[in-house]
Amino acid sequence: MKSKYMMIYNDLVSQIEKNKLKPNDKLLSENEFIKKYEVSRETIRKALNLLAQNGFIQKIRGKGSFVLDINKFDFPVSGLVTFKELSKKLNKNSITILDKLELKEPEAYIKKELNLENQKIWEVIRVRNIDGENIILDKDYLDSTVVEYLDEKICKDSIYNYLEDQKKLDISFAKKEITVEGATKEDYKLLDMKNFDMVVVVKSHVYLNDASLFQYTESRHRPDKFRFIDFARRNKNS
Q1: Which of 12, 32, 188, 236 is deepest in the core (most CB within 10 A)?
Q2: CATH of 73-229, one of 2.40.440.10, 3.40.830.10, 3.40.50.1700, 3.40.1410.10
Q3: Could you name the CATH architecture of 4-67?
């Protein structure tokens, strides 16, 4: 026989999947759930914690529990996929908003990330809007000795398409790091953050085929809209 908290969990999951509970809906309070299901507070908390762990709700201290959008976009971790390619695959209405394009002297941390000496960098800050919501903030820094020219049209379309098709650069691989960080003032300004105070950050160092580093990127995602996927194959020890 299923435990009471699992029965409550399954009931709420069913309501979310059938859209009876919609994204951003606020759930009943613990006391209201206790009366509804006639169970203990511990049982309700177990059910709510499991819902949060499995990405169905977000618990916000002092405000309650809110339903998350379970229709998340699959974002490949191991591949080098442009936003234009991702949008085409998702078949979603998408817009790129160019917030900043500047050829400049790099700040100290960018200089370190790109192993630069005296060369300038392109700083490109773009907001990605999908289905009417600003949910990704892409901050790109490119070595200007490799990427000699950029303009607004290129940045709004696809930098990689330009570099590969017109400049004939062979973009080969990237080293990625995924972290969860507190939202910054810039995130709140440029993204539709709603009730979220954290973002998922994918930091990438991108290399050409000759193993030369030419790009450092911080891609900042609103946490409810993406799930990051990868394919792993086990190699048995001989």
Answers
A1: 12
A2: 3.40.1410.10
A3: Orthogonal Bundle (1.10)
Q: Where are the alpha helices (DSSP H) in 25-82?
A: 30-37, 41-53
> Within a 13 Å sphere around the CA of 41, how many CA atoms are in the beta-carbon half?
3
Phi, psi of 162 (to 5 degrees): -65, -45
- The CA-atom distances, in angstroms, between 198 and each of 130, 195, 210 are 19, 9, 36
**What pLDDT digit, counting tens, does each position of 61-86 carry?**
888 999 887 666 666 655 566 677 76
- Tell me: the pLDDT tens digits for 91-150? 778 899 999 999 999 999 999 999 998 899 999 999 999 889 999 999 999 999 999 999
In which residue ranges of the chain is CATH 1.10.10.10 found? 4-67
Exposed / middle / buried, residue 48 (Cβ in 10 Å: 0-12, 13-18, 19+): buried
Residue 66, phi then psi, degrees to nearest 5 = -125, 145
Q: What's the burial of 108, exposed, middle or buried (CB within 10 Å: 0-12/13-18/19+)?
A: exposed
Q: Report pTM.
A: 0.67
Exposed, middle or buried, 69 (CB in 10 Å: 0-12/13-18/19+)? middle
Phi, psi of 196 (to 5 degrees): -85, 140
**pLDDT of 232:** 57
Instruction: Express each pLDDT in 211-238 by its tens digit.
Output: 999 999 999 999 887 766 665 555 565 4
